Amino acid sequence: MTPPHALDAHLRIDRGTFRLDLPLTAAPGEVVALLGPNGAGKSTALRALAGLLPLTEGHLHLDGTALEDPATGLHTPAESRPVGVVFQDYLLFPHLSALDNVAFGLRCRGADKKTSRAQARPWLERLGLAEYTESKPRALSGGQAQRVALARALAVRPRLLLLDEPLAALDARTRLEVRAQLRRHLAEFEAVAVLVTHDPLDAMVLADRLVVIEGGQVVQTGTPSEIARHPRTDYIARLVGLNLYQGTADGHTVTLADGQKLATTDELTGPAFVAFPPAAVALHRTRPESSARNAWQLEVAGLDLHGDQIRVDLTGELPLTADLTPAAAAELDLAPGTMVWASVKAAQTRAYPA
Amino acid sequence: MSPAPPTAAAPDTAVSSRTRARRRSARIPYALLLPALLGLAFLVLPLAGLLVRAPWSSLPGQLSSTEVWEALRLSLICATAATGLSLLVGVPLAWLLARTDFPGRRFIRALVTLPLVLPPVVGGVALLLVLGRNGIIGRWLDSAFGITLPFHTSGVVLAEAFVAMPFLVISVEGALRAADPRYEEAAATLGASRLTAFRRVTLPLIAPGIGAGAVLAWARALGEFGATITFAGNFPGQTQTMPLAVYLAMESDPEAAIALSLVLLAVSITVLAGLRDRWMSTP
Question: For chain B, which domains are there?
Fold first, then answer.
């Protein structure tokens, strides 16, 4: 029996001046990202889901079981929830080896030392850490520690996986690689995953659905592309000011699912994302004869004033948004329904592994 | 012991090459140097005197007497038992003070540290009033279980624990405050009860603090005099620990007192060396 929502929660927490009011539902296998600026209440929400912070009002149901309901005084403590948490700085137990860190949760659930270790080992192997089982956390790199933390959280087979800024503690280089790995592991995870981040790129790459919160309130929810295309607050628009596509890369070309090809200067093979900011898009009345290899004829769907720029929403073979100066928009005489040519220089796109 | 103490100038040539680069600018004003050297002499000279005046020729004979070994054995056993008792109740007490918040916590904390500043003899009197044969609890212990604590070896352990436990509690509480409580939260999310999290995560994290506190408490217990003699008396083989034996010997046989003091000094130096190596990474 699978309920329509594996996770069904309404988190309401009053902490004096701060008030969190967050309805949150998710289907099995769904990855939801809570995205928002610092102090928006993301971490508070995560702690409430984990059972580390009691709700003031609302409810929390997981797989049809009530875990918390302040109205009836129900509060399942953290240790009794089928929840796994990957903390921002991982919090690997420094006195235990990587293997014993992963085995910790299994031992707490009654397995003996030998059994728990035997069960923990495959998790480390799955995350590519077979040769680090005996390493102490301080001997691991940031990316390795992150994977041990993920293995530790997954080993207890949680029905709800929580990730607090899972990539924030990594340097830029490691981040790219770990992000792609984390995406794969999250895609394999069959229960609900909720991740908290202030980085729109992390959220868009990792999550199926975004919940944007500001000041403890939900300001927008939707798929990454919906949110990127139709930001409803300045914060989101600034945050997600990107055109993002998923496809398969072969050298300098990324082929999207519908056959569209995008040229990039980054070279890679396999599943990939391509992103470029709206400001990188140039619009023309006639087919551009420039060196830009990425050119499509599209229809103007809408025009919006966005700061001191005009944001143009385009539909057609490759839906995208473009930012223009008001002068350029006037010169092109743009209106909904107008057909224009859009071009993007390969050098202004970014491609990275999916 | 070398009879010629090094002059102020002699070490200068030896040390300067090593420290010149680091402390060249450090000109020490004489107004500070003089009292500093006086302080150093005050701390070191009595110990040196102990070594100088030690009856080295008769020492083997002094130390082979059964009373000495009996007192030393009793001292070591009681100090270790007092440390064990302090660990058993002191670590949970430190946890309560560091990790929970209850009304009057600050007041309780002040009470716990009181024995640090209380004259030990007052502690002995207080113990006697509570646990003595006519004491508030002691009377009941005596009539109900036939247990008599004062003037018994167990009384020595109690007196020493009373004086030494605050050292352990303060040390462990400090370690707990320094340890990140979020490790306990991480353990909880993995299914650990608070007790399991304490046992498997918190305890290993604060082990160095517990070790340092235990060594301090043990050393304090080993030297305990006032509370012990007041509460447990001075019966050879039963309650006469080394400090008591030293004090008693001073009246009748000063040479024996010096010999006993040397033994305690050796034990203290050993403890300090162990403490330094294991718990304190001095720069």
Answer: 78-238 (1.10.3720.10)
